Amino acid sequence: MPNPEALTEEMWQAILTNDASYDGQFFYAVKTTGIFCRPSCKSRPPNKKNVGYFRTSQQAVSAKFRPCKRCKPTGQRLPDDEWVALVTEYIDTNYAEALSLEILAVICHGSPYHMHRTFKRVKGITPVEYIQQVRINQAKEKLISSNKPVGEVGVDVGLSNTPYFITLFKKKTGHTPASYRQLQQHNMKEAFENGKQHEFTTLLDDNHT
Ligand SMILES: [Zn+2]
């Protein structure tokens, strides 16, 4: 899979000034989001260190970058489900960072309103609900697999406000993080002991036959 090449300073200036005279000469690709654009794209300029370029849009596509919904660098519209897949992937990898509908919309090149509606139509839940779902699922795992204090687990999943983390967790799971951890650890202990008992009775059965 070919990687984008390093930008020249001239290209970077063209991107910053949305200079349409460079359109068609190169396409810039943002590695963190997997989106590529025309130089004139009105989307917020990305961080330079995450940007490279391709000479043609076909090269960008074959390197698995997806066309920006806003500047349509292939001349075609990115289908909604692909755009939503891109937003979903971004949330899945960046759930620990600050995320909101506005931030996502800027990063994934669309308006907040359009993103909210499209996401909900494709996935059945809103982007904000999806962010919460990913964070709570991650928190569940971290509560069971570590002894980190609840507040730290919250920080790890992007919910650094501990009272808010506890309230949201309870709303989504019916338990506080602390009682969820206790319950799961209790269940696991029980399963372990039942397992041992089971092994023991199996052993006895084997001896009888
Ligand atoms: Zn664009």
Give the count of helical stretches: 9
Element order: H for helix, E for strand: EHEEEHEHHHHHHH
Into which percent range does the helicity of residues fall?
55-70%
CATH topology of the largest domain: Arc Repressor Mutant, subunit A
- In the CATH scheme, the class of the largest domain would be Mainly Alpha
In whole angstroms, the N-to-C terminal distance is 60 Å
The number of distinct structural domains comes to: 2
Low-pLDDT parts are none
- CATH homologous superfamily designation of the largest domain: Homeodomain-like
- Cofactors and ligands present? zinc ion
Give the helix/strand class.
alpha+beta
Number of distinct beta strands:
5
Protein name: Bifunctional transcriptional activator/DNA repair enzyme AdaA
Cofactor: Zn(2+)
Domain HTH araC/xylS-type: 85-183
Keywords: Activator, DNA damage, DNA repair, DNA-binding, Metal-binding, Methyltransferase, Transcription, Transcription regulation, Transferase, Zinc
Give a written overview of the molecule.
This protein is an alpha+beta fold and 209 residues long. The chain folds into 2 domains: 1-76, DNA Methylphosphotriester Repair Domain (3-Layer(aba) Sandwich), CATH 3.40.10.10; 79-209, Arc Repressor Mutant, subunit A. Helix content is 56%, strand content 7%. The protein has 9 helices and 5 strands, in the order E-H-E-E-E-H-E-H-H-H-H-H-H-H. A 5-stranded mixed sheet has the order 1-4-2-3-5. Strand 2 (27-30) and strand 3 form a beta hairpin. Helix 3 (80-94) crosses helix 5 and helix 6 (127-145) packs across helix 9 (177-208). The longest helix is centred in the C-terminal third of the chain and has 32 residues, at 177-208. It is elongated, with a radius of gyration of 24 Å. The termini are far apart. The model has no long low-confidence stretch (mean pLDDT 89). The structure holds zinc ion. Its cofactor is Zn(2+). It holds the Pfam family HTH_18.
